[in-house]
Each structure stands twice: as structure tokens, then as C-alpha cells.
Amino acid sequence: MASVLMNGASFIFLLCVSDLVSGQIRYSIPEEMEHGAFVGNVAEDLRLNVWELPARTFRLVSVEKKQYMEVNLGNGILFVNERIDREQLCRESTTCSLSLQITLDNPLAMHRVVVEILDVNDNSPNFSQDEFSLQISELIAPGARCPLESAHDEDVGTNAITTYQISPNEHFGIKVQTRNDGSKSAELLLEKSLDREQQSTFELVLTAIDGGIPHRSGTARIIVTVVDINDNAPVFGHDIYRATVAENAVKGTLVIKVKATDLDEGTNAKLTYSFTKHVSHKICELFKVEPATGEIRVQGVLDFEESNVYELDVQAVDNALPGLAGHAKVMVALIDVNDNFPMVEVTSVSSSVSEDCVPGTVIAVISVTDLDSGKNGQVQCQIPGVVPFKLQKSSRNEYQLVTRDILDREKAPLYNISISAWDGGSPPLSTSKTILVSVSDINDNAPRFTQSSYSVYLMENNTPGASIFAVTALDLDLDQNADLVYSIPDIQLQGVPGSAYVTMNSRNGKIYALRSFNYEQVKHFQIKVQAQDAGSPPLSSIATVNVIILDQNDNAPVIVSPLTWNNSASVEIVPQSVYPGYLLIKVIAADADSGQNARLSYQLLEATDPSLFTVGLLSGEIRATRRFMNQDIITERLILCVKDNGQPSLSSTATISFSIVPNVTETSSERSDEPFHSEDFNDLNRYLIIILGSTSFLFLVTIIFLFGLKCKEDINIAEGDSCTVCCCRRRNSNAPSYRSPAPNQPFNYSGSAQTEEYRYTVCLSPESSKSDFLFLKPCHPTLPFNEVSARATKAMA
Length: 797
What we know:
The protein is mainly beta and 797 residues long. The protein folds into seven domains: 2-118, Cadherins (Immunoglobulin-like), CATH 2.60.40; 124-228, Sandwich (Immunoglobulin-like), CATH 2.60.40.60; 229-336, Cadherins (Immunoglobulin-like, Sandwich); 343-440, Cadherins (Immunoglobulin-like), CATH 2.60.40.60; 448-550, Cadherins (Immunoglobulin-like, Sandwich), CATH 2.60.40; 558-668, Immunoglobulin-like (Sandwich); 700-796, no CATH class. It is built from nine helices and 55 strands. The protein has a five-stranded mixed sheet with strand order 1-2-8-7-4, with no helix packed on it. A four-stranded mixed sheet has the order 9-15-14-11, with no helix packed on it. Strands 17-24-23-20 form a four-stranded mixed sheet, with no helix packed on it. Strand 40 (502-504) and strand 41 (510-513) form a beta hairpin. The longest helix is centred in the C-terminal third of the chain and has 35 residues, at 683-717. It is rod-shaped and about 215 Å long. The termini are far apart.
């Protein structure tokens, strides 16, 4: 074997053909090359840089079970990885090749490499037996031929058997014939008549020689026995019979019937049909010949894909001793039936594809084959159903699975792509193949809060540091693209940074109060929360959180009228003006709380004389229940309680003292009942009255005159401005003064203060000079007081 390899090495040649259209590279190497033997430089032939092979995930894929070839990623050289025995790999096929697929990623590229395995003459011809026996009648005329056992050579082509030779003799020669499959067969040719009496046996050496360099040969001994008597051999009607049969023919199906005739009579003309020794054992398992009738029938399972034609050598032998034989060939052609399902092979599968890949991205390479022929071997392929993938035909039997539409992992993270292939037979046969493709995530979804706006109701006087609310955001992405971080952007709440009010847990979205809130200072505030994922680039969204502070009954009522000192107030009352139901004073209280917590009620706790007073439960009005009598005490004291409606209720008390002033009017009336004495009204009093009356009259006339002049000037200045407004206020001297509420704590007052305002409009007009010299009107209640004051000032000027 080593010598064969050495001799074959001298004839090694490499053939590289680069087809720019198909992307195919072809090499040719002899068989039996040692491990590491150079085949070709793939990187150079594909015009690839050696340094990019590992980076692009260079892969060499073969359909064979053994990895006969390998590529050195360091230099791009394709070398022999395992010893190749052509006879074992391709058997008796005339051509033998290895089909390889080269795949590179980033970008995805595929190239086909075909390595043709050239035969090396490493097998010698050999016969099935070392010795064969032939019986030839002496009556056979020269020129008769007798088939000889053929030798077998596992090599093919020029290395197969090319000729036969026989040892030199004067009676026999050799005739070599070529079969339809190119193989050689030998026949023993009678060149000179035999004479049994001169020589009854011949020992010949048959040599089979192949066409290799150097030649190899095999020998077998042929013992020829000369038989006397029977001088007519059977003769077939045709030298070659032709028949066809379907490959799915059942056992016993008649293929053809051959017939031979023998001119002899009796037992010498009775023929027995059989296959010759040229017929292989495999053919004998598939076909049989009926010895008596010559019918050839099917007895095994035929397969068109294994062999579509069979060559049968039949013979008819008479019953004479020795028997004579006639020979013929039967060519049996098989008719293909659709008995093979299409085969779908998937290579270079990308199990994961990014959801942002562009349409047309290659996912896998699919090879579809069918062992049948003709229409039965024509295969169509498609993807059933609606999926964002499609098949593109790249060559006769190859497809590329590519993306058809934009992928969305959030809608479909995984695809079971079913590929259906069917042939053109009747009925058609089909095959399905499933490819599992997962869609990898990109950060294309921003976090979404469960609500765009949240409302949080928080009771005032809360505990600092306690959780007041929690927000939740969802992200449809995966892994770090869905890893959310919560935060509160920098904000200002009433001039104070938002970080001074609340803080937030960045992982779970819980919001914590950093201070205790006072409803009377802050009733509500608004913050914005942000959720941001960890993608690249990160995406975020913002939601609004409205924090509403709820009131708690934490403020007691405060009495603002009448003005108190140490919770005490004094009020003077003139007895003559008091009547039942008379309003003595209105107590006004305020509560900094709101709602029910600021709903006040008034209650009389204690009084010097409870029968004199009554207090309005909700108004706080203290009224007299009857007239005051002289026998009533001069000072009346009562204790008033103001209580809110909160839970629990808070209250305040005040002590009000009423001083009953003696009635001056009543004393004067009592004196008027006495007789009038004229001496009490002297001359000096008369003079004083006259002077005071005159002075008052002159002052009044002067004022009226001045007002008349002013009104005339105003008419000349602005026609249409017919009225100059002035307002004056009059306040009851007994009206209590108000105490201003605490800062940022608006009071809620119950009832109205015991205060009266009077507004008048003084109008001077040309019409008034004709009719009314001077008249007064109340001011319009909706006129702002500052505007009234401004106009009054202008008028007085």
C-alpha cells in the first residue's frame, strides 16, 4: 500500500476552478493521501484575509460522517484530516467527490467546495476462484466462444481491468468485450479444432490486467476438458433481450421469457436455463430464471435509486454428456416510481436573530433532495402559514431561509418555522422540517407606568420616613432592557427642593415622606417620578404623583371677636335699648382646620343670670331674653364655649362681662316732668344759641357754594363724566377689632362681624343745579373700595 501511495504521489495534481456565479471551488486529490496533505488554499481562492477567518466564525460543514477535510484557520489551507479510501467512500461509482460547505458570519457568506477523489491503482484484479473448469466438445468448430469468469477490480476508470490474457497455446485464444457499464469480460475463443484423442485436457492461465501505472494483475487456472459426442449447442433466438419492470414490482413478477433451440434430438435437445457465473450474487438475489421454461421473474426488492438497469447473462445447457450451452444477455431496465420522500437538510442555522434585523437577513441554508428521477424527483418547497420568514432559491436544490418582515420580540419571541417539501409524483410525497428560531431583545420599549397620574391622600402630621405610596412601571423588554430604576427629577415645591419633601426607593418605586406635613401650611403638592431602564441607550417615562394632604383636627377654635384679654371681654349695655331678642354681641370664632374640623358650635357654659341670655348654637349671637330691670345686677358675667366638630372635638372658652350703664335718657325725661322755670334760661344762653346758629348757617352756605364751583369745573374738563364719587365709611364705635390670623393659617369664620359699612355717592351735575342742588346715593356694592377712594381723592382735589 505504501508503494502505491508513493507511486500515486508522483501523479498528484490539484485543480481549482472558481465559479463566480455559483460561488463554488473545486479541487482534485488522489485517494490514500496522508493526514495533513495539502488540498488547496481556501482563503486565497475565496479572496479572504486569513486574519478574519476566526473573527467571522469560519465553519466547514460536510455531509459525511467522518471529517475527511479540515481547514487551518492560521493560513487558510484545506488539508486531509483522515485517510480517504475511494473504494470505501464511493464504491464502484465512476466519479467520487466530497461536497463541503464553507460558512462565514458577519456578514453571512456561504461557499461550496467540491473535492474530487481521484482513484489510485491500489487494488489488483482478483478472481472469485483460483481454478475454473470448462468442458468443450471436440465437435465444436473453430471460432466458438466460451464465456470465462470475470475478475473483479475495486479500482475504477483507467485503474480498472482493461484486458485479459491467456497463456500461449495453439488451440485457444482470448476475446475481450466491453460491457455497457464499461467493464471488461473475457471469452475463450477456440482457434483450432480439438481432438480428444490427441489431448483431452488443457491447463490455461487466465490473467486479468488493469490500466494502472504500473499495471496490476490477477490470475486464475482454467482446466479445459474436451468432451466427445454432442456436437450442437443450444442457440437463443436473440443475442440480447431487453425488458422493463417497475421498481415496485412484487415478488414473482414476470420480467421476460427467453428461449433457445438445440438441433440435437432426445436428451441432447432438452435444455436447462440458468444464469451464468458472470451474474453477481446481488443480481441472483433480485432475479431468478425458471430452469425449465426460461422465464425470468422478480424475487427480491428492486430499487431504481440503487441501479436503474441490470445486465443478466443467461445460458441454456442441454442434457448431453457433456452438455452444450448457448448464451444470451438480458437487459432489464427499471421504471422509476415515486417511492422516496423528499429529504430536507438544514445547515448553517442561526438559532437566534435580533429583532432589529433588516428584511432579507439569512437565517439558515436548506438543501432539498429526492432520490427519485424525472418528475418524481422534482421537489418544491415552501413555508406554510403566515410568518415573517420566506424561502429564497439560491440554486437547483438549495434554499435560503430569510426574514421577510420586521420582527417584534414583544409580539412573538419564538418561531417554530415549518418547512414543507413535496415532489412531483402522483400521488406526491411530502416531508416537513421544523426550525426553531428565537428573537433576541433590543431596547425598543420605554417603561410604562400603570397610570399616567396618581393621586395620593396623606393625613397631615404623618410620621417622617414612612412610605406614603408606591408606583409601578412595566417594560416589555427583557433582561437589562427591562431593569428599571426609579427616581424623582429635581423639582421645586414652594421654593424648596423636592428632595426636602420626599425620597424614592430606586428599585421598588416606593415613595417616602421626609417630613411631617401640616395641612394648614401645605394642602397639596405635585411631584414627577421617572422610570428608566438599563438599556443602551436607556429609555424612560415620567408619571405625575399628586399628593393631597388631608386635614386632621389639630387646631382648637380661636375667638377673634370680641377682642379678649386673657380669654375675657367686657361689653357695656344701655338698659333702655334692650328688648327681648336684642343682639347684645356676636361672638366670632375661627378654626385653622377645614371641613367638619372647622364646623363650630357655641354653647353657654355658665352665666350669672342664665335667664337673661341666649346663645345661637351655630351663629354665636348672644341675645337678650327680656328687658333689663333696675333690680338686675350691674355686671353680668357668662362663660361661652366654642367647639369644633372634629374627632376628637377641640374647644375654647371665653368669659364675657356685660356692664349695665345707667340710662341717661330716662333721667332727663324724669326731670322734664318738673315745672319749667324761666329764670333757668337766662340771656347769656340766648346769645350763645344765636351765635352758634348763625355760624353754622354761614359755614353750610360756603360749603354748598364751593361744591357748586367744583362741579362746574368737572363738567368742563370731561363731558360725560357726570358724577364724582366719594365714599365714606362709618364704623360703630362698639364694633370689636379683629385679630389677624397666624401666618399661612387662614381662619374659617362662622357668621358675620358686627360691623356696618355705609357708602355714598355724591353726584354734582348740570342737571342737579337745575333741580337738586345736592343729593346722596349709596355706592354700588361691587365697586372696589380702592377705586372709590381714588375717585374721591380726585374729587376733593
